[in-house]
# Entry
Amino acid sequence: MYYFIVNPASGSNHGRTIWKTIHQQLDKSQVEYKAFVLSKRGEARTLAASLAESKQPATVIVVGGDGTINETIDGLFTGSCAHITFGCIPTGSGNDFVRGLGLARDPSKALHTILHPKEIRPVNIGTTQCGTASRSFAVSSGIGFDAAVCHSVLDSRLKTALNRFHSGKLVYLFTAPWLLCTMKRQTFRLTVDDCAPQTFEKCYFAAAMNLCYEGGGFQFCPDARPDDDCLDLLIVNGISRLRAVSVLPLAFFGKHTRKKGIHIIRCKKARLQTDQPACVHTDGEIPGFCQEAVFSLHEKKLAVILR
# Structure
């Protein structure tokens, strides 16, 4: 059975338009399916959790953006998801999950791939412990600057306006430099796997990457792969604000990795402690503010339709 979890509000109601086309194609092809059209945040997580608990073989397809994908996967990983196959028809502004896995972006092509898959691959899913909260992530999770950007643009009017012209990801280019110039830098104490703790002064942020893209196309960790059983941890510290602003655009092309103040560490588990509570994100969603975040990978993987 195909289960479609639809976010009609994604991409400033772009999801509603795409879903109208998709369900017409499904009905025309006489495909048996069930659709859940979301009306509020958190609903996708609840629906996905119920599908995970059912233990019945199912193909779960998100019609939405990275936020809806995150909620759905987080719900699936509350239980066993060995019986779940996952697909996506992108309608968001960032679409880093789709970009990172090289999935089809055209809705009709994406639907055809889901209905007639040629390659289904198990991929890693990350998990973040932030205080008492635990959240899964498919793309990335971070603390500090990148999370603050996500928090700022989550309900941004500018993002809504840009989405009308299918340019929602440009909001990150406007918001990021301002935050780099104004946010307070912190000391990070990092413990990776079984290694001795390290200290990084004047840190902007740390991001645990499962895929190579974040923030609408920034290649923060160009070598991150979702099937290598590792996370790529990026830490940015010890450089001036002006330097940080000049390096940021290079990340869009993955050309920042050898610059001063850029550290990429491959690991299975990373524990980060900060001086003061800092914003944390999981795939752009905000579970909260905390002084300690632990990034790792779930033991189980998610079967994703790639081609």
